[in-house]
Amino acid sequence: MVAAAPNDRFAGSTPFLRAFALVLGGHYLLRGAMVSGEPDRIALARFHIRQLMPAAVGLCAAATEGAAPLYAMDAEQLAS
Fold first, then answer.
1. Is it the case that residue 33 has pLDDT exceeding 80?
2. Is 70 in contact with 19 (CB distance < 8 Å)?
3. Contact 28, 40 (CB under 8 A)
4. Is the dihedral of CA 22, 28, 30, 36 positive or negative?
5. What whole-number percentage of the chain has pLDDT above 90?
6. pTM (two decimals)
7. Is the pLDDT at 77 greater than 80, yes or no?
């Protein structure tokens, strides 16, 4: 994303940040579960990793898609 045009970076910023938050959240949930060993924390970390983390793959794809889909339609096409 660093080498992309500014509009492409802006278009990908939200999905990138959402993916980063999912991965970072999973990291800290897993880290806390491993340190404490509490069954509730382990279950929460397992749920996050199995149910929520797969969304990071799609978000990373959306982050690198670029701005072209945002500019594919003009205002006249949207009005009709």
1. yes
2. no
3. no
4. negative
5. 69
6. 0.79
7. no
